[in-house]
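Dear colleagues,

As part of the handover before I leave the project, I'm documenting each prediction I ran so the next person doesn't have to rerun anything. This entry is a single chain, and its sequence is reproduced below.
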Amino acid sequence: MGTIKEFVKEYSQLLANESPFIYEDEDGKRYKSVEEAYKGGKKVTIKNSNDSAIEYLKGMGIESKSDVSKFLELLNHIFGFESGKKSGTRTRKTYTSEEKAALMDAWSKAEANQVSKVDFCKENDITYQTLMKWLREAKA
């Protein structure tokens, strides 16, 4: 099991690189691009840094996204960091009657083109529950 400091040292390059992939030759030398790696003429293996970082964290006892979330929440609380909006959460949105009418009209057309409700909701940034509520209201 490693330490948090070792983890940060080993994986901090993930913040700077767009790609999580690293290229390593048979001598263990790491390269940022595949072209750079193959210039040496040695056998190159491709590794996903994200996967190895997750395994490292599992060795430290952080085994799920829930564990990560709780750990970050605890660190934010201890050190007094302002935690912004949680990623992946939606804010409540209120639709005007015009917006609702336009979306219901768009749904009628999408339904005629056999677009699924889920796909329609994703494309129009509304929740599935909202669409279902509107459809129930329209039937009543």
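The chain has a mean pLDDT of 85. The longest helix spans residues 97-112.

All the best with the project,
I.
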